[in-house]
């Protein structure tokens, strides 16, 4: 029988030639270096039990060939493979399944005594014995369930940026739990006290280059909400009991802090807008993106990522086909001199897919962060660093809406032109299909005239 030997009627032992790649490595059973041969006494004279032990040793060796020693023997993939093996053994013979499970448990305890990571072993046993649902598995399945490409899913899709933010939130949670990866975290491991400590003690003290004084209350809330979605989904589809998902539930007895104490973003003054336009040359990627954003009130990402196929042939406007919310999907009219800017850029980028191919798109997020980075440097040069906490590229949107409001453009028209969410009644949402292109153009012209009249576009 392959790899099994018995000498003079004594107990069976396992024997095989060590794979070349493993010679000299520490074995996962007692930590000693592997020689040219692997010989392990099995401590039994029963052939059936010897075969089971042989198969377990073989599985360990194959995993070592692929991954390494203890880490490989007790990683997430090994745990899932062992769960399948234990389930199969129990179906064949319940007693056999119990014996194999006992052996697996004893070997895991031995590995822990040799110094293997306690959290890794604990996660392995929970997964192998079906007592835990790994965060890595939950994350993969949750992403599939919330993917925009999954047309059969009953769950609302998440945007690409939300998936990126979810990944960051999971990384924060793993570091909080001292887990090297999501494979080592079970959803059942997170208790309510831990979730509370993570939210109120750990997250506020995370400092990054973008948040040198710690994460904001808004960012913390976003992280917790995204993580809660995984636990809620897992409970809803039956992977974990409902009480497991309740760890994220909080009773707000004390009013949460708002950002009113922090200086808010504001709109540009006419003098500031004029200075920025004067310092940016028309016909360049910087000058054109700034002019179109100020004239239309669009989010800067909507302008920078705009595809030529969504632009009217006469450059009288364009369609936003993808956005932050459902309301962001809309037609945006372009009027007066802004139409000339759009027309010139449309001709300049003939043969390209995007209106601004010069602005690179980050593959991970689908956004063009280079625009914001450029504007930060540009704004500081033109308006000074004292505007850091009050002005940003998004201030073009603040400016457009403020001017539209002061020009007495109706709130409903402003919401439709700018793509903001609405407080419509259910009847409005069902039966009101908005203004026509011509009516939208008239409203946009009113805003343009107000921008001109108030001195915002002196250097347009």
From TrEMBL:
Q: Name one GO biological process term.
A: DNA integration
Q: Which InterPro entries match?
A: DNA_brk_join_enz, Integrase-like_cat_sf, Integrase_catalytic, Tyrosine_recombinase_XerCD
Q: Give all residue intervals belonging to the Tyr recombinase domain.
A: 263-444
User: What Gene3D superfamilies does the database record attribute to this sequence?
Assistant: Intergrase catalytic core
Instruction: Please indicate which superkingdom the organism of origin belongs to.
Output: Bacteria
The answer to whether UniProt assigns keyword DNA-binding to this entry is no
**Key words of the record:** DNA integration, DNA recombination
Kindly indicate whether the keyword Transcription belongs to this entry: no
UniProt GO molecular function: DNA binding
Matches recorded under PANTHER family: INTEGRASE_RECOMBINASE HI_1414-RELATED, PHAGE INTEGRASE-RELATED
Protein name per Swiss-Prot or TrEMBL: Tyrosine-type recombinase/integrase
The scientific name of the source species is Donghicola mangrovi
